[in-house]
């Protein structure tokens, strides 16, 4: 489905990185129905060459959340279907084919934070700020935020953001777990791309396990988590590519871990 509010580029020698730009800067990349469906479709149809993705927003802000101009006419049953449509789309981001790095700047608010939360790594630049204005607008998150955001920052912090309209800046966001990285203003896209390139060099099995198994283990009781971990680690280490990588290290042909 083509949509002028989103753009997909492929980059890297083997077209292994998908770069997905939200291109609706005049409306601060607010997400209307067409755009959420386009996000779903892009992740459903990523070319087979792609090993990692970056998502970013054009203009001064990453994303202003739900397009509020579409909200007023919806009744309760339409609201449920609308929320479920967001869930389906962001499920494709979180549990889609490849890890996704969000390059954040400016406003990451409401549904914009819900989109960022569905990504696997968030890189914020110094201009980034986070908020959940749904609370003060008399509505509630509907794009999976109540499930994903407490897992990043805890229920109490999310409730505070919604009760009081609290806004976190980039540094604070990293400290509480909204992003894993903070970089100077204007540099989040370059850093996100660098991370995506590193991710793309991992074995597909490792990336699959990190995306699809690790979050499930985190939800399991410990005794089930340990057995799931044992199964997955034995599958991963039996892959020929994993054996070749370990052998290369033992022969001094692979990079050592360097002090941070
Ligand atoms: C929008 C939206 C939007 C901007 N829906 N049109 N999200 C919010 O409540 C965030 C609302 N937006 C803002 O607080 C600000 O716009 C920003 C802090 C993001 C940016 O401020 P600024 O000064 O750069 O831009 P602006 O002048 O406020 O907005 C520029 C235009 O974008 C303006 O339209 P124009 O026709 O007057 O030019 C705004 O109306 C429009 N715009 N944000 C519609 N969100 C799955 S449930 C998710 C629940 C939610 O996400 S609730 C929404 C939360």
Question: Can you walk through the features of this model?
Answer:
With 260 residues, this protein is of the alpha/beta class. The chain folds into two domains: 6-200, 2-enoyl-CoA Hydratase, Chain A, domain 1, CATH 3.90.226; 204-250, Lyase 2-enoyl-coa Hydratase, Chain  A, domain 2 (Orthogonal Bundle). Helices cover 47% and strands 15% of the residues. Strands 1-2-3-4-6-9 form a six-stranded mixed sheet, sandwiched between helices. A three-stranded mixed sheet has the order 5-7-8. Helix 2 (76-94) links the parallel strand 3 (52-57) and strand 4 (100-104). Helix 1 runs parallel beside helix 2 (76-94) and helix 4 (145-153) packs across helix 5 (155-164). The site of 3-methylmercaptopropionate-CoA (MMPA-CoA) has 22 residues, from strand 5.
* Annotated CATH architecture of the largest domain: Alpha-Beta Complex
Q: CATH homologous superfamily of the largest domain? A: 2-enoyl-CoA Hydratase, Chain A, domain 1
Estimated structural class: alpha/beta
Radius of gyration over C-alpha positions, nearest whole angstrom: 19 Å
According to CATH, what is the class of the largest domain? Alpha Beta
Any low-confidence stretches, pLDDT <50, length ≥5? none
Named CATH topology of the largest domain:
2-enoyl-CoA Hydratase, Chain A, domain 1
Global mean pLDDT: 96
**SSE sequence, one letter per element:** EEHEHEEHEEHHEHEHHHH
* Count of distinct structural domains: 2
Give the termini separation: 44 Å
């Amino acid at each position: 489905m083509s949509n002028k509010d989103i753009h997909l580029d492929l980059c890297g020698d083997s077209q292994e990185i998908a770069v997905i730009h939200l291109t609706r800067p005049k409306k601060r990349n607010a997400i209307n129905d067409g755009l959420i469906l386009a996000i779903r479709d892009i992740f459903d149809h990523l070319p087979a060459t792609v090993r990692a993705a970056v998502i970013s927003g054009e203009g001064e802000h990453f994303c202003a959340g739900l397009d509020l101009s579409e909200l007023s006419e919806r009744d309760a049953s339409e609201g449920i279907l609308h929320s479920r449509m967001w869930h389906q789309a962001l499920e494709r981001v979180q549990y889609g084919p490849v890890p996704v790095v969000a390059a954040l700047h400016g406003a990451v608010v409401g549904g914009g934070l819900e989109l960022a939360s569905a990504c696997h790594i968030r890189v914020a630049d110094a201009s980034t700020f986070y908020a959940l204005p749904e609370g003060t607008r008399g509505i509630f998150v509907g794009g999976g935020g109540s499930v994903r955001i407490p897992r990043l920052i805890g229920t109490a912090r999310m409730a505070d953001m919604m009760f009081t309209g609290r806004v976190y800046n980039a540094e604070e966001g990293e400290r509480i777990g909204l992003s894993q990285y903070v970089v100077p203003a204007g540099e989040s896209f370059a850093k996100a791309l660098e991370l995506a390139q590193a991710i793309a060099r991992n074995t597909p099995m490792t990336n699959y396990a990190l995306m699809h198994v690790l979050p499930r283990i985190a939800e399991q009781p410990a005794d089930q988590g340990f057995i799931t971990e044992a199964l997955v680690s034995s599958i991963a280490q039996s892959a020929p590519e994993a054996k070749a990588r370990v052998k290369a290290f033992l022969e001094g042909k692979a990079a050592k871990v360097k002090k941070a």
